[in-house]
Amino acid sequence: MPENRELGFIKTVNFSFARWLDPYFAVWCDEVIEEILSTGSYSLRKEEKFNYSDLISETKEVLRLIDLMKDLSPQE
Fold it and tell me: In this structure, are residues 58 and 24 in contact, taking their beta carbons and an 8 Å threshold?
């Protein structure tokens, strides 16, 4: 089982990758961090309704692009 340090690193890499994949998520993260730093807290109740169909559509597009990248990568 990975040590706590390794799990923390994995979480950091996952968030960095998610921020890289979706600029809107990156901006949202920045806004949340800014609010936490300025007010000391953040409430999810302020979140507007999220359009999950857009997220599903974008996720399918990302997965399609990953498949294309796999097809284009040199085979071992």
Answer: no
